[in-house]
Design a protein that fits this description.
Layout (H helix, E strand, L loop, with lengths): L8 E6 L7 H16 L3 E6 L1 H4 L6 H17 L7 E5 L5 H10 L4 H5 L2 H7 L8 H15 L5 E3 L5 H17 L9 E3 L34 H9 L19 H14 L3 H8 L4 H27 L2 H30 L6
Parallel strand pairs: 1-2, 2-3, 4-5
Helix pairs in contact: 3-12, 4-7, 4-13, 7-8, 9-12, 10-11, 10-12
The structure holds adenosine monophosphate (AMP) and tryptophan.
Length: 340
């Protein structure tokens, strides 16, 4: 089955499980906006059903779902150009997810590194949902027969699993119903690291707020976090090889490149020889100039939660119109009687 047989369609999602970080922005949302503006059909989801695979306080979940939607809008996603909605309003995700639970193999799930990272030594105490989560993610994507999935580096394995699920479904039922979607992972921001430890990814769930830049941080907070970011005493090199063993320095250069839209090598030609005492204020100014207007716009949008809910409801109706016929065909292929 070649992909050419499927209309290009982009799907991606982010969990409303806390503050949106600069990592989410550079690894995901910034590229969601670029793809939207390239004219291809784009569907972006707030994956609330994924968020509850670990405990979420109900009031906090509601607020974070609206906040993430506000962030999508403030970063430039446009509900007239993209479909924007929250996952739980379109039941096709859960239903197709069940079909895929019966296609995916336990052995495949056991290889998922994100589950191992999140569960640590406590696997027995994790929810069944956290374990089955990649199968729901496959359903998110394939309920729309999406062909392209922009994500950060950490989601590559899950998109590959989605391809395996599509492939096994097609093989088992002797069909070519589902496409095998491509992960789109490019640019300098695909793996933004913690500001405190260059070997850990920047994450919403890191206990240290100093480890990340939140999209809601004000100018002072952004400048302070960059000033205190871990670095080394060496000046910046003039080429990428010079960053090989300097993860913290590499991360700050990558962040600069991700925000400015340059390649890391281009940034180095401009800042080679600088000490961090010089470079950090440049990075702070760039980050503040870019992120502060987004935070302001988020604040403005959050003042009208009813309007956010309206946008999500409208997006969910449009999403359901695409997903429901695909789900109905999938049920039919599997052999379910549909006589209502
Ligand atoms: P999550 O916050 O886990 O729902 O992730 C949402 C999207 O942001 C996914 O595409 C992730 O790959 C991406 N992402 C999360 N953290 C980072 C990071 N530190 N660097 C780059 N991309 C990230
Ligand atoms: N698993 C993704 C994450 O944690 C979020 C996600 C859920 C997703 N469903 C998706 C991403 C479908 C892309 C496509 O970051």
């Amino acid at each position: 089955m070649t992909e050419a047989a499927f209309t290009p369609r982009v799907f991606s999602g982010i969990q409303p499980s806390g503050n949106l970080t600069l990592g989410n922005y550079l690894g995901a949302v910034k590229r969601f906006v670029e793809m939207q503006n390239s004219g291809i059909e784009t569907i972006y989801c707030v994956v609330d059903m994924h968020a509850i695979t670990v405990w979420q306080d109900p009031e906090a979940l509601r607020r974070q779902t609206r906040e993430l939607t506000a962030a999508y809008l403030a970063c430039g996603l446009d509900p007239k150009k993209s479909i924007l909605f929250n996952q739980s309003q379109v039941s096709a995700h859960a239903e197709l997810g069940w079909l895929f639970n019966c296609v995916a193999r336990l052995g495949w799930m056991n290889r998922m590194t994100q589950f191992k990272d999140k569960a640590g030594k406590n696997a027995e105490k994790m929810s069944l949902g956290l374990y089955a989560y990649p199968s729901l993610m496959a359903a998110d994507i394939l309920a729309y027969k999406a062909t392209h999935v922009p994500v950060g580096e950490d989601q590559k394995q899950h998109v590959e699993l989605t391809r395996d699920i599509a492939n096994k479904f097609n093989h088992d039922f002797k069909t070519n119903f589902f496409p095998e979607p491509e992960p789109i992972i490019d640019g300098a921001g695909t793996r933004v690291m913690s500001l405190r430890d260059g070997s850990k990814k920047m994450s919403k769930s890191d206990p240290s707020d100093m480890s990340r830049i939140n999209m809601t941080d004000d100018a002072d907070a952004i400048a302070k976090k960059i000033r205190k970011a871990k670095t080394d005493p060496e000046p910046l090199p003039d080429n990428m090889d010079g960053l090989a063993d300097r993860p913290e320095a590499r991360n700050l250069i990558n962040i600069y490149a991700g925000i400015s839209g340059q390649t890391p090598a281009e940034v180095l030609t401009e800042v080679a020889g600088q000490q961090f005492g010089q470079f950090k204020p440049l990075l702070a100014d760039l980050a503040v100039a870019h992120l502060a207007p987004i935070a302001d716009e988020m604040g403005r949008l959050m003042a009208d939660p009813a309007e956010i809910d309206r946008i999500l409801g409208d997006g969910a109706n449009r999403a359901a119109e695409i997903a429901e016929p695909i789900l109905a065909d999938a049920y039919d292929i599997v052999g379910m009687i549909r006589s209502r």
